[in-house]
Specification:
Length: 491
């Protein structure tokens, strides 16, 4: 049994819509394509645990290929189509893939990176394939769920070479079950998808909604946020998931506050902290809709914790507690759990923790110790056990003997109505060691503010050593394909 078999266990024969894109695709048609791809992979002598790259935007081609590759017993390696040629060449050389499933429009830019021994499959190739009787009777692939790697997700290499996170079939099954449980997903759920499927948050939407027999609406046009709201209304979506920048844009650049999104049951946010002021705005804009604040890492198969919607007001700013089946702790440098309000590192234990980094035992040993994943995130714990992220260890600003969390300053700046986004870093200072520098994005439709205004605003709400010494205005913060701010580029 593979992860694909688990996902389609109860839905493979359903004559019900699974995917809404340019046309609707039923579960039975989708599973037919998955079987066809799996069978034909075996016919071209690509064998179990061989690596196969998948280069595609969100599309039926991605979904069919993804589950077909996993069904065959091979390891799927989804890649961002906009990765640099250097990164793709590095990944190809390190993975030694036997095949590449790629949208035809991306192929020309990749041809000189692909050696002649690698099998190439495009949408046109799939359209010419037929499923034969041998395929329908071929049975399930025998897989060691616990140890066989189903997927390798390469993390964005903003500061170094990309690292390949190895996720087993068991990792994927476990995390999918947990997310379904705490979101109370069921067959009637339909989610509007704007997150890329090559990103762990995006793939988790695929996994959960296909497992429960729900449906997904694909939208690759988030740069036009009104289309997202149109989709939610038109297709009566019950869910939406996004990273902070998605919600900031919807609240500042769309008509979300004036829409009647009556079908929405919940929205989910992860991929970084959404400032409290935006969370409050979101609740006011979507009255009666459950707001789930979540936290995770690729190394944890997407999800580590969530804050229940009924605790949002009481525990504003918290990432909640561990998801079902996952233990989260905040520990000091001696490995002991910290006292209330003391700062330590978040560590996690569970069946969702990655097998390790591909071909990088040294880095794996740094982050997985005694079964625990060391996240690199600094946090505090309150008296009820709720966790509050302070900062990434690498992002803490050390100024004049003080340790400063950039998030605290960002949350103050973002309260200014004219501000859409803010990012804070430390820069070298001959006297203080590091000085605070803020990057700010303003809303053109609101009265503009200047550097002096922002500094004075911060002086009124922060101790002097946390007030930015420098303020720079940008048209937009640099982000990776998953919507996360690339702090390294601001340096």
């Amino acid at each position: 049994m593979t992860f694909t078999d688990y996902v389609f266990e109860f839905s493979s024969g359903l004559n019900k819509t699974a995917i809404i894109d340019k046309k609707n695709i039923s579960y039975s048609d989708l599973y037919y394509k998955v079987l066809m791809i799996s069978h034909n992979i075996k016919k071209i002598n690509i064998v179990k645990e061989d690596k196969i790259l998948l280069i595609s935007e969100n599309s039926p081609f991605f979904i069919e290929s993804y589950f077909g590759i996993i069904k065959s017993g091979c390891t799927c390696v989804p890649l961002n189509p906009t990765l640099s040629k250097n990164d793709i060449e590095y990944i190809i050389n390190s993975c030694n893939p036997k095949g590449i499933f790629i949208e035809k429009r991306f192929l020309d830019n990749m041809r000189n990176l692909i050696n002649k021994d690698i099998k190439i499959v495009t949408e046109e190739t799939l359209n010419n394939l037929l499923l034969d009787k041998e395929c329908t009777n071929s049975g399930e692939e025998e897989i060691d769920l616990k140890n066989s790697v189903a997927v390798i997700l390469f993390t964005s290499g903003s500061t170094a070479r990309p690292k390949g996170v190895m996720l087993t079939h068991h990792n994927l099954c476990h995390n999918t079950n947990s997310i379904i449980e705490y979101l109370s997903l069921n067959r009637e759920d339909r989610i509007e998808v704007v997150l890329p499927f090559y990103y762990c948050f995006g793939t988790s939407l695929l996994h959960t909604h296909l497992r429960i027999g729900g449906s997904l609406v694909i939208n690759n046009k988030f740069m036009f946020p009104e289309t997202v709201l149109d989709d939610i209304e038109k297709y009566e979506c019950t869910g939406f998931a996004g990273v902070p920048s998605n919600y900031q844009i919807l609240l500042r650049k769309s008509s979300i506050k004036d829409r009647n999104l009556k079908s929405l049951r919940y929205v989910a946010q992860a991929g970084g902290r959404l400032p409290d002021s935006f969370i409050k705005e979101l609740k006011q804009a979507l009255v009666g809709v459950d707001v789930f604040i979540m936290y995770g890492q690729t190394e944890a198969t997407a999800r580590l914790s969530y804050l229940p919607p009924n605790m949002l007001d009481e525990k504003m700013g918290s990432i909640g507690k561990g998801i079902p089946g996952t233990l989260l702790k905040v520990i000091d440098k001696e490995g002991k759990e910290v006292k209330v309000d003391d700062i330590g590192e978040v560590v996690a234990l569970g069946e969702n923790i990655m097998k390790g980094y591909f071909n990088d035992e040294e880095e794996t040993k740094k982050v997985i110790r005694n079964g625990y994943l060391y996240t690199g995130d600094l946090a505090t714990v309150d008296e009820d056990g709720y966790i509050y992220i302070v900062a990434r260890e690498k992002q803490i600003i050390k100024s004049g003997g003080n340790r400063i969390s950039p998030k605290e300053i960002e949350n103050i700046i973002i309260q200014i109505p004219s501000v859409i986004e803010a990012a804070v870093i430390g820069i070298q200072d001959d006297i203080l060691g590091e000085a605070v520098k803020a990057f700010v994005v303003l809303n053109d439709e609101v009265l503009k503010v200047d550097e002096k205004y922002i500094i004075e605003y911060c002086k009124d709400k922060l101790p002097s050593y946390k007030v930015p010494k420098y303020v720079v205005f940008l048209e937009g913060l640099p982000k990776n394909s998953s919507g996360k701010v690339m702090m390294g580029e601001l340096k």
